[in-house]
Amino acid sequence: MAATGAESQLQRIIRDLQDAVTELSKEFKEAGEPITDDSTSLHKFSYKLEYLLQFDQKEKATLLGNKKDYWDYFCACLAKVKGANDGIRFVKSISELL
Hints:
It is a single chain. By secondary structure, this protein is mostly helical. The protein has 2 domains: 1-56; 60-97, no CATH class. 60% of the residues lie in helices and 4% in strands. It has helices at residues 5-31, 40-54, 70-78, 85-92; strands at 60-61, 67-68. The protein has a two-stranded antiparallel ribbon with strand order 1-2. β1 (60-61) and β2 (67-68) form a beta hairpin.
């Protein structure tokens, strides 16, 4: 049975994400130091992970018209974790993410 377009696209996204993890691992082994925010491999991985998390999601909105996405789910889960509120507030304050 042939895979549908969405299934084949999902498989490609997963392969790309695996490649990004392999690249991060290789970078770590070669440098022998932790990966930092300056790493282009880390940026590429983050981009691909976000793309995977948003794959095939429909636009959702609350009753008040605010957009809802996977980040709202993370915030709801992390709000229950003691000490995570500072991190959530920091990320929500970044204007580029709004």
